[in-house]
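Entry:
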Amino acid sequence: MVDEDILDLPPPPADRRIAYGPGAYHFGDLRMPPGSGPFPVVVLLHGGYWRARYGLEYFGHASAALTAEGYATWNVEYRRIGHEGGAWPGTFEDVAAATDYLRALADEYSLDLTRFVTVGHSAGGHLAVWLAARRRLLPDSPLYAPDPLVPRAAVSLAGLHDLRRGSALGLSNGAVHELLGGPPEEYGERYAATSPADLLPIGVRQILVHGTEDDSVPYEISRDYAESARAAGDDVTLVTLDGVGHFETVDPRTSEWSATLDAVRAALS
């Protein structure tokens, strides 16, 4: 398994840090490949069990590596557990606003929003799939948007796609309860609006990459979610990485990074 030093290694600088809203955490790092475009776009959502301790910096390495492959990358920051306004509903409002903000950036930066995918790691994997699913929300949901920007596909790296199961397992000392306020028995409507497993079928292609030795988000969550999503009619590919842990797929120095590249290429094909 790879060392977790990717969390502390400073990433290559972004081309632009752009605010998508008024708050201190309402920004994203935009990286642009050479050329005149229009460029396919990858929106990146970092992990950290939605907590304030972890920011977008570690995902900057993946962003830079994907930009070197010819993709424009938008590495998104958002309010997290521990921030004022973070968790429910602010975390979801922020990643939705950041994604929809691509419409405001598209002309200036020659972004091709017909070739746009979300890619997330860990808790960000959950958010990447949720962004693809949010058009399923009903108008009475606090998170409803009448015209959300829908990705061509969602790529999840070691994502937690079933929040009810995450709650039952008490993952990361109850992180799901911190995110949504408590268990599904008390906050069922919040789980129904934010857990991809509750929103099936989402009608967007999904590629799930997960290692069997992941000690942060159990591999079985992706395996079982993929089965449920396929049964509901979704196009889902599960990429199983035998003997791989939680961080290899976000570190361009590893051999497992090739699985991430392949997933992004397939998502944009």
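The chain is about 35% helix and 20% strand.
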